[in-house]
Design brief:
3 domains, cell membrane, signal, single chain, mainly beta, 1 helix, 51% strand, Immunoglobulin-like, membrane, repeat, eight-stranded mixed sheet, seven-stranded mixed sheet
Length: 367
């Protein structure tokens, strides 16, 4: 081999050695360069609590880790120092491998993207999302207050709620009463922010519960009272009542009405029955229904006749009548009977008197 060939071969070998050294140096630098060991896991935390986002790195050496708020481009922490002025923000680390961003007393405004950054050139970063869940809250604005409606009208009850995730609205009736739909079907609950009731009846009256839930405790509810107005209705179960002279009895009628009616007893002449004496009106009231009772003690001939049960409210008035008539007592002659005894045949009269009650002017065969 001549000298020129030897020099060419030597230059080629030297070039290969230099390239190999450079490549090895780049590979070594890449292996030992800072980086992330895994992605940042998204975090979901309830309002008012503490959230912790974790960023895991390797080969940090003299490089620094910083946390930033993406939407506002605000630097929160650099290395172990808190840059943010908020006392709610903090930073900790585990052997400078895992860096934790702490946000205490969470607010809804804390929801968003956060960046973990290594100050290499060019810088390296990755993102994690913080979601804030908020328990439901029923809003006064947009939610029905107590309602009063005329019977036969239609009404819509509304319920507005906030929260994250957005709450689901459920309607129920108090004391597990069924909700009666416009088609007459009865259900224990209905979903949705609006409860529509067509052709309201008194059976719809009562308390309704608007319940808001979104999986974040506590579930909340609001009580909405539905009042149904209607004119008086009177029910009399016995329109003819018989009584003997000197006996005691009670006549009664049932009234339903709202607003609360004025109810009383009157005689056929229109005279209102006063309280006291042998006639003592009594009233047993409920929310819609009242029972009007009139006890009559030691019936006299003046007590016979027609009694009117009268009920009035702002929507109308009505009345029902009961007729009290005389029942006469009749004595039946006791028949004779014969018994055979050791002393012969003995006749005797029935010792007890049988009583037959019959209306005056009516014929009843009591034999």
């Amino acid at each position: 081999m001549d000298l020129s060939s030897f020099l060419k071969t030597s230059n080629m070998i030297l070039t290969f050695i230099m390239l190999d050294c450079l490549l090895a140096r780049n590979i070594d630098a890449t292996i030992h360069e800072p980086g992330f060991s895994g992605p940042i896991e998204n975090v979901t935390a309830p309002l008012g609590r503490e959230a912790i986002l974790a960023c895991t790195v390797h080969n940090l050496s003299t490089y620094k880790v910083a946390w930033l708020r993406v939407d506002t481009q605000t630097i929160l922490t650099i290395h172990t120092h808190v840059i943010s002025r908020s006392r709610r923000v903090g930073v900790t680390h585990s052997d400078q491998r895992t860096w934790f961003l702490h946000i205490r007393e969470l607010r809804e405004t804390d929801r968003g993207w956060y960046m973990c950054q290594i100050n290499t050139d060019p810088m390296k970063s990755q993102l994690g999302y913080l979601d804030i869940v908020v328990p439901p809250d029923i809003l006064d604005r947009g939610t029905s207050a107590d309602q009063t409606v005329r019977e036969g009208a239609s009404i819509s009850l509304t319920c507005a709620a906030t929260g994250s995730p957005h709450p689901q609205i459920t309607w129920r009736r108090e004391h597990s009463k069924p909700i009666v739909g416009s088609d007459g079907l009865q259900v224990t609950s209905l979903e949705g922010p609006v409860l529509n009731i067509s052709r309201v009846t008194r059976q719809h009256a009562g308390a309704y519960l608007c319940i808001a839930s979104n999986g974040v405790p506590p579930t909340v509810s609001k009580r909405i009272m539905l009042t149904v107005e209607f004119p008086p209705v009177i029910v009399i179960r016995n329109q003819l009542v018989g009584a003997a002279l000197g006996s005691d009895l009670v006549i009664e009628c049932e009234t339903e009405a709202y607003p609360k009616p004025v109810s009383y007893w009157s005689r056929e002449s229109g005279e209102i029955v006063p309280i006291g004496g042998s006639l003592e009106p009594q009233k047993i009231s409920g929310s819609y229904r009242s029972v009007l009772r009139l006890p009559i003690r030691r019936v006299t001939s003046a007590d016979y006749g027609t009694y009117k049960c009268v009920s009035k409210n702002s929507l109308g008035d009505t009345e029902g009548s009961i007729k009290l008539y005389l029942i006469q007592k009749l004595n039946i002659v006791a028949g004779k009977a014969s018994d055979i005894t050791p002393f012969g045949t003995q006749d005797h009269s029935q010792s007890e008197t049988d009583v037959c009650l019959k209306p005056v002017n009516n014929f009843i065969d009591c034999q």
